[in-house]
Amino acid sequence: MKDSDKKHINYKEHWNKVYSSNDMTNLGWYEEIPKPSLDFISECGLDKNAVILDVGSGATTLIDNLIQQGYKNIIATDISTIALEKSKSRLSKENSEFVKWIVDDITNPQNLDNTLKVDLWHDRTVLHFLTKEKQQDGYLAALKRVVKKGGFVIIAVFSLEGAKKCSGLDVVNYDHKMISEFLGNDFELIKYLDHLYINPSGGKRPYVYTLFRRENI
Ligand SMILES: C[S@@+](CC[C@H](N)C(=O)[O-])C[C@H]1O[C@@H](n2cnc3c(N)ncnc32)[C@H](O)[C@@H]1O
Prior knowledge:
Elements: H1 3-6, H2 11-21, H3 35-43, E1 51-55, H4 62-68, E2 73-78, H5 81-89, H6 93-96, E3 99-103, E4 118-124, H7 133-146, E5 147-158, E6 165-166, E7 169-170, H8 176-183, E8 187-198, E9 204-214
Parallel strand pairs: 1-2, 1-4, 2-3, 4-5
Antiparallel strand pairs: 5-9, 6-7, 8-9
The site of S-adenosylmethionine has 19 residues, from α2.
């Protein structure tokens, strides 16, 4: 049994503390340019008006980069209010118009619009924190509720060779086949990438990036 299954963790408090006590450039997942994500997104060939949902967005520079590339309908959601505030504070007033900020727990979303439909679900390192079946089921239900038929899903997590903990929390390690199994038959694996991310302290963090397309029927 994982440590996180044994004790009660207030995830919102945990993540707010992480973001309030660290400069984002020192965080163990910081990327100046989130290249693997941007490459996978460009593979989707989305219209600039496509709805892109970044799940567990944190304070990522992905948002700045997507705006720079001309995307106009971005939704950044995270359990941490402080993370989203940090992200938002970097943007000009003009650029903020292209982003909706929604504080929510993706395993049991209360604030995401019930009728929301997205062209792309992007998650870099949320799924691997979900160690309990109930959390994973909630995440999958949210994903299936919001991803359009024919829409895309990008999930990037620690690979089987990757770290077993992140930010003091247990993680579940995956390979592309496990993510494929998790999503089920409606989602076709288009590509995956084993990527060695080097964190700001020089630590090696093997990730797997996956891109899926939802059936269009
Ligand atoms: C390792 S950070 C990655 C942040 C961002 N995706 C990036 O690549 O920089 C994981 C993020 O997931 C968020 N998170 C963790 N559990 C969550 C949940 N149940 N619902 C929504 N966000 C969550 C955390 O607040 C944190 O911002």
